């Protein structure tokens, strides 16, 4: 009786709660926008040097994410976000993790999000083009694809909620449709699977390889970065939820000079070089002029409104 009870308790404990698996998905979803924001900051600071990084960000992220996730799946049995929460993947049929399971997990973790991002960008581009009333080739076909895409996304979200309910009720070992399609689930990392312990004494004696130590340092750095990225994501979300009605209404800007800034930069009074628009005031500046002004004063020279580097964006007219 006692042995059966212990076995049952171990099985119940091996299944993570719904809150844990949702937290894993939330952390995995923060990597792309977080590194995207870093890339945008680098491009604004030096567009000539980091232009390719911004143009091919999706492909670069695909390769880097693929390398990291492949290493974690191969050596730890789970993705970076899953290992961060002390979980790993397991087959719901064999309770193991074969090479086939590894390939399926890598495809769902790396390739599927990449294809989803590309599809959303293409759909949004079509929506903007059709909304502007421009003559678009095969407009009816594109409109049909947009409707199909919206319907498929809605159906998938409904299936995802249903799978959550089935997982919570104990009818399924998989918490998402992708996990169920690949016959995989999440379980806790057991004690014998935890990280390798090492000390300086064993390292000097040669009991621990230097490559093992370096890999552990890199992996811990990645896991710490995952926590830091999640913290920044929470901070940014809290900042965006600020009640705008509680902010004081700024006074109408007092212009020190009456000048028509049409087709010229309000700072250098010359033709724009890399025209850059200020989202706060609507004025257009040269890129170097407005960046220099932000670094020195932190205000829009034409309107005197406070601005930051995040309030400007480049304009492309070609």
What does this structure look like?
It is a single chain. This protein has 318 residues and is mainly alpha-helical. It is built from twelve helices and five strands. It has helices spanning 2-13, 18-28, 31-45, 47-55, 57-75, 80-84, 99-131, 139-169, 177-181, 200-204, 210-240, 287-296, and strands at 87-91, 184-188, 275-278, 284-286, 312-314. The strands form two sheets. It has a three-stranded antiparallel sheet with strand order 4-3-5. Strands 1-2 form a two-stranded antiparallel ribbon. Strand 3 (275-278) and strand 4 form a beta hairpin. The longest helix has 33 residues, at 99-131. The radius of gyration is 26 Å and the shape is elongated. The N and C termini lie far apart (77 Å).
Descriptors for this entry?
318 residues, two-stranded antiparallel ribbon, 12 helices, disordered N terminus, elongated, mainly alpha
Q: How do the strands and helices of this protein lay out in sequence?
A:
Elements: H1 2-13, H2 18-28, H3 31-45, H4 47-55, H5 57-75, H6 80-84, E1 87-91, H7 99-131, H8 139-169, H9 177-181, E2 184-188, H10 200-204, H11 210-240, E3 275-278, E4 284-286, H12 287-296, E5 312-314
Antiparallel strand pairs: 1-2, 3-4, 3-5
Helix pairs in contact: 3-4, 5-7, 7-8
């Amino acid at each position: 009786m006692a042995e059966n009870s212990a076995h049952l308790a171990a099985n119940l404990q091996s299944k993570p709660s719904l809150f844990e698996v949702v937290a894993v998905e939330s952390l995995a979803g923060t990597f792309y926008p977080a590194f995207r924001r870093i890339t945008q900051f680098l491009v604004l600071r030096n567009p000539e040097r980091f232009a390719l990084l911004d143009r091919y960000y999706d492909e670069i992220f695909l390769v880097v994410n693929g390398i990291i996730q492949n290493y974690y799946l191969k050596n730890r049995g789970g993705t970076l976000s899953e290992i961060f929460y002390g979980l790993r993947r397991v087959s719901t049929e064999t309770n193991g993790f074969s090479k086939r399971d590894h390939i399926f997990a890598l495809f769902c973790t790396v390739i599927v999000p990449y294809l989803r991002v590309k599809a959303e960008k293409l759909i949004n581009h079509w929506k903007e083009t059709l909304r502007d009333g421009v003559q678009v080739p095969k407009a009816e076909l594109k409109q049909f694809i947009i409707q199909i895409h919206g319907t498929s996304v809605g159906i998938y979200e409904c299936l995802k909620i249903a799978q959550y309910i089935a997982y919570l009720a104990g009818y399924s070992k998989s918490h998402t449709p992708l996990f169920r399609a690949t016959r995989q689930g999440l379980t806790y990392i057991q004690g014998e699977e935890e990280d390798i312990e090492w000390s300086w004494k064993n390292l000097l004696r040669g009991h621990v390889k230097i490559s093992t130590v370096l890999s552990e340092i890199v992996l811990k750095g990645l896991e710490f970065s995952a926590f830091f990225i999640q913290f920044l994501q929470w901070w940014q979300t809290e900042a965006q939820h600020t009640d705008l009605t509680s902010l004081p209404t700024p006074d109408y800007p007092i212009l020190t000079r009456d000048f028509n800034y049409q087709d010229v930069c309000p700072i250098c009074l010359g033709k724009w070089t890399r025209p850059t628009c200020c989202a706060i005031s609507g004025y257009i500046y040269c890129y170097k002029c407005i960046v220099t002004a932000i670094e020195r004063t932190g205000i829009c020279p034409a309107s005197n409104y406070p601005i930051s580097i995040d309030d400007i964006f480049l304009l492309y007219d070609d």
